[in-house]
Give the backbone structure.
Amino acid sequence: QDLAYARLKQGRWRDALQEYQEVIRVNSAPDEVRKIVSELHERHDQQLRFDFSWADFGSDMFITTGGRSRGFFGQHFETQATFNFGDFDAVSRARRDQAYFGEMRFDYHVRRGLVFGVGAGGGHSPARQIFTPAVYALWDPWDNVRLTAQGRWHSLRVDFPQALTEGTLTDQVQFAWSSTLFERVAWQGEYEWTRNLLPSGAASIGHRAEPSLSYIIHKKQPYLSLGYQFSFLDQSDQGGFLNQVSLIPRRQAHFLAGY
């Protein structure tokens, strides 16, 4: 069991999985070992998933269908791929368009808790045909702390029908953190910078910050926690962007959440 844990810390998850499975076969392994084996399978087994989403904004709506896959090659290389087709109906703009978009990402797991990734994506709509490079990084400096960063340049904005039909491109940089303190207090959050661009040159710079703090009431099944989240959003308007794409210019919201 100690050898398996050492392999896992080194990022050699295949070797760790074999060692843990041998522990289960030979001994009556504790539930903690069986949980680790289950999590390793969940994290590293080949996966293929079908996605469907439908959103109604009152006068505008969209439907997207697609799929995503994830898998490992060897100990250190991971691939992730997504592909989607969307039907976007912007009644408020008397426009209805279709779009294809997706991304392929390659991650290198240096060791457990240290990952670097690069990706390439693209999108096709009546207003835009675009190539999107992407970068990703994950770092766990301590067992109870995780930091992530990612960025994309010129991706189709597909979360709002008006944005898609008007040909909006988005540059995005996102930072996120999560930490567990004293085994009971979870502190996490995100900061995201975005730049939205229209073919006319109109633009909007956005800032979004969402810190949260929660208390873990019951750590075992059934898991129970109670927390607070603050959400802040600010969107600037350059060249009349918000007159063409009706994004929320500013928002401050407070949430009480539990799960």
Notes: Helices lie at 2-9, 13-26, 31-44, 161-165, 241-244. DSSP finds five helices and twelve strands in the chain. The chain has a mean pLDDT of 87. Residues 122 and 131 are 4 Å apart (CA to CA).
